[in-house]
Amino acid sequence: MSDNSVLIVDPVSSGKLYPAVLAEYGIETILLDTAQALVSGFRTAPTPGALDFEADFGSSYERLLRMCRDRSVRYVIAGSEPGVELCERLRGDLPDCPGSDTTLPMRRWDKQYMFEALAAAGVPSLNTRSVETPDAIAATAFAELRGGRKLVVKPARGAASVDVRSVETPAELTAAVAAITDGAGLFGSGSAALIQQMYPAPRIEYAVDTFSTEHGHELLCVSVYDKWVSASGDFVYERGRWLEHDDPVVGELAEYASRVLDALGVRVGPAHMEIMSGSLGPRLIDFGARAHGIGHPQQTYQLTGNSQIHRECAYIAERFGLGRPAAEPRSGYVLAQRGALVLFSIDRASRYLGGADAELTGLPGVREVRMAAEPGRTYPATRSMMDSVALGLAFVVADDADELDIRCADVRKRVGDFFTPA
């Protein structure tokens, strides 16, 4: 048994990439499944080789903590959004395990506390109100809608754009809040609803991926989302494009992201931020104290030679005395090619005919196709990023932006030909 081991909580999505990278350093990994990942749909079956928090530990945190101490766990990783809360708690209780500020840790996973922390630290953010029931909606919110403004409703605890809605009328606002507060929630428990100011158009959404150590915050990747709003008011993501480090907006986003990380008490580990920018300047709209999901770090590594996961594994190896200490934190990245993740979507319930992966594989610039849809199965209209992941995605590269646009459009068109309205 190793003198130092790493626990990965809910190793799904990008979290599945950690064990292989850590194995290159000879570091033992312990995998842990929790019910939160199951009920939220992040996984549908047990993770091979993983312990089960509910079955193996009787949902007892004390028993889990004892096992971690017995097996010399010296670092804990949140393998996906469902595992963040448990990961943060373990980091605070395990000896010699680096972690973030333990004061009000829920500001890193509950958006109600998150936006309150930003306001308290003087970090510019969108006007956000929390409500526990539809009856608690303030009259001013209804007045804003009647005055022609749009609002965004989202769960205080959520991920992957699930239940995030754009609303234009009082009736839509009430229904969107009720859907969140009256439902079970993405992680199997009720959530407050946040009513948030809509960032004024024109606006662009960016993903900013960082890694933090005791030496500061490092920028590893910035990408931009192309998306559209469906007839039901859902935000549908078409693709995420990696931006060059010398793009003028990257510096502004990096500076703002650093202020967010400080306000949320992030001291160690990766963080994934979704930031809107435009006439108001950067404004945080979502945050995850874990690596970018949907396997995004794998493509980032192909484009830049580094990623949040590779950086975190190198940091762990340094702490364990198994890797060379970095001379100084990296301050940026360089793209070898332009790249984008094309997220598949359908605008109405449709049946997948099968064969799209064979059609896409081998197209110019298509590096990877992950077709998740099953032939003959009918899928609902896409409402969130999780819905897109249930259909599939493709990683596309090109030498310049125009060529990338053409290749991505071709991929989306060809995928659409393999779905027929139900």
Automatic annotation (TrEMBL):
Top-rank lineage group of the source organism: Bacteria
Pfam family, one: ATP-grasp_4
Alphabetic keyword roster: ATP-binding, Ligase, Nucleotide-binding
InterPro entries registered for this protein in UniProt: ATP-dep_AA_Ligase (IPR052032), ATP-grasp (IPR011761)
Gene Ontology MF terms in the entry: ATP binding; ligase activity; metal ion binding
Keyword Coiled coil: no
UniProt key word Metal-binding: no
Domain ATP-grasp: 115-317
Name of the protein this chain belongs to: ATP-grasp domain-containing protein
